[in-house]
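Quick illustration, no need to memorize.
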Amino acid sequence: MFRYTLMRLGVFVGCLVVVWGLVYSGIAPRGLGDANYMWIVLLALVVSAPISFVVLRKERDRASMQVVAKVDRIKANLDANRSQEDGADDSAPAQGHAS
């Protein structure tokens, strides 16, 4: 998961550098007034998202399989704990029954 995050960040930084170069060379439009830096970041996000989606597909699938395996382990542990608690409740004598 950490590897995918670093790869995704790398794609974003690469796009940020390219967009910054395009904006300051005049090829891409500049933002309005003082919003130029925000424009560059937003444009880099928009460009990097589809690139990451296509280029990092295999790494994203690996990361999602790790997450699914971890969730399955946690669910199994919870079910095991729940069944132990149910067994302890069933074997305990009933107290406080008022007739």
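The chain has one domain: 2-80.
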